[in-house]
Amino acid sequence: MRGVIVPLVTPFNEDYSIDLPALEEHVDYLQKVGVHGIFINATTGEFTSLSKEERKFLAEKGRELVSSTFYLVGTASSNTFEVIELTKHAQDIGADYAVIAPPYYCPLKEEALFKHYSMVAEKTDIPIILYNIPSCANPLSVSLIRNLALEYPNIAGVKETIDSINHVRDVVLEIKGERKDFKVFTGLDQHFLNTLILGGDGGIMACANFAPELHVRLYRAFNEKRFEEAFEYAKKLAKLSKVYDLASSFGSAIKLAMSIRGFSIKPVLRPPYVVDGEETKEEIRRLIEEVLG
Hints:
With 293 residues, this protein is an alpha/beta fold.
């Protein structure tokens, strides 16, 4: 698995029920555009606002819909036994990878984090992508990621949603140097090209929900050594990533951007998240028009 992975939004109706037709339409669109993977129950998908039953339902529905790309399922929880249950479920339905952020809410030492991931890795066979997102959960150090990767063959990679090129550099050099099959993805659109240059494998980036053509073109240009073109796309993504600074949450930024670009997914978030108002929407509109025309 390499390239552009989309952490999928979860479409909702005005009554907060899951909008299945919009989900089907969006997954079909992303596959036609040529993304390399689709990731359901992601942070962008508001997984913390979904019940365990809804998460399983979405994972099963996604498995039905995703046919031409890699299929990833988020199985994070603050409860280790629930993570094991959800990861086993992802394995049983035939997902290609489970993506697991660290437990959130409770600060944990590295020994506790190692035990958490060890228990999941020992109870399941599905390849696991660690998810380092220190703004929302316990941070994963380079040494912890390395120890897990060298101890468990089914810990297959990491998504780095961390605004640090040095950290990504160290993960690539120290872990891929010892285990070449270990995958390193950025979670930040503005670091997509940087990660590829360092020897990483791609990105799992939220803006690919509404502008996947930019990400796919950058990846193709880089692979085909058309570097001037790759640089131009990288500049566009860097500017487009400012969308996160304009809104109060990832979900609000992405769903407002999608509504501006004409997607059928409604700008509805489940509480406690709220969609930002018209002023924010207009700022996002100006940014999109400046970058995408």
